[in-house]
Design brief:
This is Penicillin amidase. With 600 residues, this protein is an alpha+beta fold. The chain has 19 helices and 32 strands. The strands form 8 sheets. The chain has a 10-stranded mixed β-sheet with strand order 24-20-19-10-9-8-7-2-1-32, with helices on one face. Strands 25-3-4-29-30-31 form a 6-stranded antiparallel β-sheet, covered by helices on one side. The chain has a 4-stranded mixed β-sheet with strand order 17-18-11-22. The longest helix is centred in the first third of the chain and has 28 residues. It is globular and about 65 Å long.
Length: 600
């Protein structure tokens, strides 16, 4: 087994077998991202407050109620033996690197990244809007919310490129890695704690990339409960049903323990009040991890498509291209068949019309000559969801491609440059208008107590939702920004729009001041919340260009670096490149890499 690194500390791993390579990936990840692995495992188990204190109780309570660790263990049991062996080898490697890890922990941390990435928190907000403002007002907020995406991906002959958008976290949510053994040689981006390469990979002959399909695959049910001599029961479509209930204790550093009721109906776990959550992964005890080994072994676009056919959640739009010139557009994941109202708000658990029907919505798969995916409403996504991103980003990418723009130009395309005073004025005016709306009589009912758990505040806090939906609300009220706020004097946009990532709990570091271009709606989708803060907390968490004609011309970058230790030279060494739209070359020649370690 050998560990090589490039000048940015990105690991390139070689081993004699698939499982040996998984062990090595686990050990190197524990070395490079050990702090992050520990935090994410504790999050998946609902135990982070035991080391980080009361600030983490809200998440731990949700993780226990949503039964994330139990779901991870159930999914692991159902995996094929080869996948179990592979995950076990990875876990052995993580433990060899000094971090406690279970074979199912990888499934748990993957859920942590995606359980709130779906649609159900938006349904909580929409229900609050309907209760307080009336059903018609829901259309004012029918734009991308804080759980949505600003991701982009495009495929043209010989190339796939793009940039996923998520919450900006330090250390980053994605790890650059290359994995080589006699059976495959794949470079790509992985979630630290998950073996292989899930969402963005280049295997030499074939490459793939994903964006959020904006599919609706999570449902919330309003439950009715009653206590009987036999125990707690819930009212289902066929009458009263038994409910599983037990208590768990959250230990809190520096505070008293907290006892949590964990309740599961036949719909799913009760995550807040009387709301149960139904997801494909919990229903089928399957996240789709059997697809991951198939991705590593893929040699053609059809191989990748066949592997993704077993994917469950989250539901993604996938672009695949190979060196034969084949380009495929896919939807990967499971979407339940049920009433359209399920896609809008929590629905009554006892009404049969809202039950899931047998089977899943058929996935999309088609050969194309080229494609642009930007979370937009397209023929390949229409059957899966109700809320999509506006079409502006996709339209702009097509314009730039037609003009012959390089991928780096497309990544950084924006009408809000950091150095622009005019952009600063526009940003300041929008923030001032949003603040005026906080006190608008038509919106005042939104500020009534909604009763949702604090963990859902990013989706249910009215000021944030007003800022995210500013244009829709203005249109609904017949107003404009200029009606509410004269154009104020301001500095440059970058002086207001500063990088503001979520720092890993317990990580002591100091970030440099980074002024950013971009805004929601631009290809360079760097998110802030008008009326709340112009600081950027969400944006491109990676950029990549996969060259199918010559893999060594491929390139990539992440916002921070390969290592989570602040004293490492690779903690923030990619930040200046990322901020300026530059990319790191993908080194494929082993002789041009630095051999760090070799062992039998």
């Amino acid at each position: 087994m050998s560990v090589y690194r490039d000048d940015y500390g990105i690991p390139h791993l070689r081993a004699g077998s698939v499982d040996e390579l998984a062990f090595l990936q686990g050990r190197v990840t524990a070395s490079d991202r050990g702090r992050q692995l520990l935090v994410e495992r504790l999050r998946s188990e609902g135990r982070l407050a035991s080391t980080m204190g009361a600030a983490e109780v809200d998440w731990d309570r949700f993780a226990r109620r949503a039964m994330l660790d139990d779901t991870a263990q159930r999914c692991f049991v159902r995996l094929a033996d080869t996948t179990k062996s592979w995950l076990t080898a990875y876990a052995d490697g993580v433990r060899a690197g000094g971090v406690d890890w279970h074979p199912w922990s990888s499934l748990g941390v993957f859920q942590v990244q995606h359980i709130l990435f779906g649609t159900f928190p938006n349904k909580m907000w929409r229900a609050h809007v309907e209760r307080t403002l009336g059903p018609d007002a829901a259309a004012w907020f029918a734009v991308e919310g804080p759980g949505g995406s600003g991701s982009n991906a495009w495929a043209v002959p010989g190339e796939i490129a793009g940039d996923p958008h998520r919450l900006l976290e330090l250390p980053g949510v994605y790890q650059q890695i290359r994995l080589a053994c006699p059976e495959f040689d794949v470079a790509g981006l992985t979630f630290p704690g998950v073996p292989g390469v899930q969402h963005f990979g280049h295997a030499g002959d074939v490459a793939w990339a994903i964006t959020n399909a904006m599919a609706d695959y999570q449902d919330l049910y309003q439950e009715q409960f009653r206590e009987t001599s036999a125990g707690l029961e819930a009212r289902g479509p066929a009458g009263w049903e038994p409910v599983h209930k037990h208590q768990e204790t959250i230990f809190v550093r520096g505070a008293d323990p907290i006892v949590v009721d964990v309740v599961e109906t036949s719909r799913g776990p009760v995550i807040d009040g009387n709301l149960s959550l139904r997801t494909p992964a919990r229903v089928a005890a399957d996240l789709g991890f059997d697809a991951l080994l198939g991705l590593l072994h893929a040699r053609t676009a059809d191989d990748v498509a066949d592997a993704f056919a077993g994917w469950v959640e989250p539901v993604n739009s996938v672009l695949v291209a190979d060196d034969s010139g084949t380009v495929l557009q896919l939807t990967a994941g499971r979407v339940p068949i049920r009433d359209a109202r399920n896609q809008q708000v929590p629905v009554p658990a006892w009404e049969p019309r809202y039950a899931w029907q047998p089977g899943w919505v058929p996935p999309f798969r088609a050969a194309v000559t080229d494609a642009v995916n930007a979370n937009d409403r397209r023929p390949d996504t229409l059957a899966y969801g109700a809320d999509f991103s506006p079409p502006g980003r996709a339209r702009r990418i097509r314009e730039l491609l037609s003009a012959g723009a390089a991928p780096e130009q497309i990544h950084m395309d924006t009408s809000m440059p950091a150095g622009s005073v005019e952009a600063g004025r526009r940003g300041a005016a929008r923030s001032a208008a949003a603040r005026k709306l906080h006190d608008h009589p038509a919106l005042r009912p939104l500020f009534a107590e909604h009763g949702y758990d604090p963990v859902f505040a990013p989706w249910t806090e009215p000021r944030g939702r007003i800022g995210h939906s500013l244009d829709g609300i203005l249109d609904g009220l017949g107003l404009s920004v200029s009606d509410l706020a004269p154009t104020p004097s301001s500095g440059t946009w970058g002086s207001r729009h500063l990088l503001h990532p979520l720092v890993l709990p317990g990580l002591d570091c100091e970030l440099p001041r980074v002024e950013l271009s971009g805004s929601p709606g631009c290809v360079l989708n760097t998110t802030s919340i008008p009326g709340v803060s112009d600081l950027c907390w969400r944006g491109p968490v990676a950029r990549y260009v996969w060259d199918l004609t010559d893999r060594q011309r491929s390139r990539w970058v992440v916002p921070f670096g390969a290592v989570d230790a602040p004293d490492s030279p690779h903690f923030l060494d990619q930040l200046p490149l990322w901020a300026n739209g530059e990319l790191v070359p993908l080194i494929t020649d082993w002789d041009r890499l630095h051999l760090e370690e070799e062992s039998s």
